[in-house]
Each structure stands twice: as structure tokens, then as C-alpha cells.
Amino acid sequence: MALAYDPLFITSDKTSIDVPSTPPSMILTQDELKRIAAYKAVDFVKSGMVLGLGTGSTAKHAVARIGELLRQGKLSNIVGIPTSTKTQEQALSVGIPLSDLDAHPVIDLSIDGADEVDPCLNLVKGRGGSLLREKMIEGASKKFVVIVDESKMVKHIGGSKLALPVEIVPFCWKFTAEKLREVMEGYGCVAKLRLGENGEAFVTDNGNYIVDMYLEKDMGDLRVVSDEILRLPGVVEHGMFLDMASTVIIAGELGVKIKNKHSSGCC
Ligand SMILES: O=C(CO)[C@H](O)[C@H](O)COP(=O)(O)O
């Protein structure tokens, strides 16, 4: 029997979604799934909150929704802390008052997308290039809600064909990229400087470069690998967000699934 898609259908942490033997009657695009996850996360937003505003094609739906609720008078007294200049522009365009971490060192709630999520809610982020500000802001948040479509769920982060991003200073970037490759050699690493649309090095909002680390093997102990990367002079930050997410909202063809950190069985 085909299952109809119901965006309000929410499974609990431990419930797995059964894959129907026939396709669902309503196929949603990846962007529609992202929007559903984003809207569900905005349900956590209350008037008076300081909010970390994420970056990317999923987070932009949350920013748009917060702006809409402010305009409708359903939310008030919100302060947004944007994780990129792009999000800053969007948030201003939809009427969200903005501030920064200096003025608001404690954030009530951050909402952002991710590139990969593992069963323990560890993340890879930064394929959009905003990993440093995202890690600073989301790390300062009492609650960090991650919004993804189901394609982002993986068994092990960093082990997919997509890269683990590392932000590095531009000074002698080849030297740092080579040191990174050496540290990650055991995982079959190819390190590539990220290029922008103009074919030049992609430059982050912080004036840095990004090296994308393509790994053939799963990383072992993520904390050990994280420490090894961060110890390298020239490295600013990497895209592994370990033990940071409080909740992950996953939108799939069969509905929305919410996973909480304390019931993931890992923490
Ligand atoms: O980390 C990020 C940007 O630095 C994004 O959150 C991540 O790349 C997911 O993006 P999208 O929602 O477009 O799939």
C-alpha cells in the first residue's frame, strides 16, 4: 500500500520510518523537504529570543519564516545573530533585527542546516563556506536545532564522497594544505583548495581559504582527528561539529522525524 505524505506526521526518537513497498503518492522536491524541516524548527522560536541564524539553502527557509511571523505579529522582540554576510542580508531584507556575539554572548536557539549528520548527531558543516561563524554562534547557543532533508543522514561523517571542509589562513596555504593531507593520510585523503565561481580561491567571510578534504575511509575517533587538525598552525577551524546539536529535524518523504541528543543513545 502506498503511504501518502503527511508533513505533520512525526516519529519519535527511536521509531524508524518504514520504507513503503510502493512509492509514496506525493513526491516532494528536496527543497520542499528542506522547507518543511525549517518550518518545524521555527516552531521552537518564542518571542523575546536571541536567535542564531544559519546559512544555506535549508536555513534560508527558517530565516524567511521568522521574518514572516514577525511581520504577522506572531513573534516579537526577536534578535538575530547571522552566521554569514549572506544570511545577514537575507535577515535584514525580511525585517529581522540583528546583533552580534559581542552584544549577545549567550544565544537562546540556533537553527541551521548541515551537510552530514551521523547517528550520534555529529555533523559536517561548511560546504557553504560559513563554518567558522556557524561554529562560534552555534557553540554559544543553549539549543542548536539542525534542519535537514533525509539525504544528509549518514552512518559516519566525513566518509562520504563529499568533503570535510577546513578553513585555513591564506598565508602559504599550500604548506598548510600539505600538512593537512599528511595528518589525514591514513584515511586516503585528497586535499583540494576550494575555488569560487571565478576560478580563484574561494574566500570566506573572514578572509580565509577553505581546503576540502576528500576521504576514502571513515575517520576513527572523531575527537582525535579534530584535535590533530586544530593543532596545525595555519588551520582556523574545521567543519566537524561534534556533540553540538541538541536536536535534528529530518524531513523525508514519509514525514518529519525529530532526534534529540539525549535519546540518540550516544551521549
Ligand atoms: O554549513 C553550511 C554552510 O556553511 C550549511 O548549513 C550546509 O552546507 C548545508 O547547506 P544546505 O542547507 O544548503 O544543504
TrEMBL record:
Pathway: Carbohydrate degradation; pentose phosphate pathway; D-ribose 5-phosphate from D-ribulose 5-phosphate (non-oxidative stage): step 1/1. It comes from the Eukaryota. Keywords: Acetylation, Isomerase, Phosphoprotein. InterPro entries: NagB/RpiA_transferase-like (IPR037171), Ribose-5P_isomerase (IPR050262), Ribose5P_isomerase_typA_subgr (IPR020672), Ribose5P_isomerase_type_A (IPR004788). GO terms for cellular component: cytoplasm. Its EC number is 5.3.1.6. It is an enzyme of class 5 (isomerase). One of its GO terms (molecular function) is ribose-5-phosphate isomerase activity. It catalyses: aldehydo-D-ribose 5-phosphate = D-ribulose 5-phosphate. Pfam families: Rib_5-P_isom_A. Belongs to the ribose 5-phosphate isomerase family. NCBIfam families: PRK00702.1 (NF001924), rpiA (TIGR00021). PANTHER family: RIBOSE-5-PHOSPHATE ISOMERASE (PTHR43748:SF7), RIBOSE-5-PHOSPHATE ISOMERASE 3, CHLOROPLASTIC-RELATED (PTHR43748). Catalyzes the reversible conversion of ribose-5-phosphate to ribulose 5-phosphate. This is ribose-5-phosphate isomerase. It comes from Eruca vesicaria subsp. sativa (Garden rocket).
